[in-house]
Amino acid sequence: MRNQKVGSVMTTEVIRAEYGTPFKAVAGLLSEHRVSGLPVVDDDQHVIGVVSETDLMLHQAATPLAYELPPRFRLARLTPRARRQAAKARARTAGRLMTAPAVSVHAEDTVVEAARTMVEHRVNRLPVLDEDDRLVGIVTRHDLLQTFLRPDAEIREEVIRDVLERGLWLVSGSVDVTVTEGVVTLEGQLERKSETESAVAMTRRTDGVVDVVDRLTHRFDDSEFRDTRVPGGVADDWLRRL
After folding, report:
1. What is the crossing angle of helices 80-89 and 53-61, to 10°?
2. Which of 25, 112, 171, 190 is deepest in the core (most CB within 10 A)?
3. What is the Cα 92 distance to its own chain's centre?
4. Sheet containing strand 183-192, strands side by side
5. Are 105 and 130 in contact (CB under 8 A)?
6. Cβ–Cβ < 8 Å for 197, 171
């Protein structure tokens, strides 16, 4: 299967800051380009951090209200997180404001890998790096969601060609494939149970697939023989990779 790569959906014109970019200039970049965050790079275009609207808001949040005591009369917060926030509240440059290290992906990573990284780290955008770890783009949640806009006919063709015929070496027409609004239905009878499991798992990994309806049956339950090498056991090999 040829899963879509981050490089094919990313934006190549990246709004960025350098370590010494002033606070006000960072705020201007975020406002002008209507983005919630941007990467901070060094002289070699390596990403050294990310600065976000939240980082700038800490500066405002740290400003005492009229009825509050001056900082010297308030108890010091000694937790590492509190110290980092206090430092950002006093920051005047992107390098002092930024969060480091930056969470990033590579252009050759798959869209699925990028989506998992976003969810895991709870971020909305990721700097994209080349093979030398230099900044080449930015990818957002909106960019990744474009894979679900693939036409049903295109998804069906890929499932038949790359999953069933090339991946599992099945005879053309042995499985009936229908796709409706991204939901793939597989129907038919295969030789082994492992083949049905592989067909479903591999289809689910196809770009643009929302869900898979499994209506496959099998003639032989090879659950107890998964480690046995049999001629043409391509499905077993695929299953071990999933």
Report:
1. 90
2. 190
3. 31
4. 176-180, 183-192, 211-220
5. no
6. no
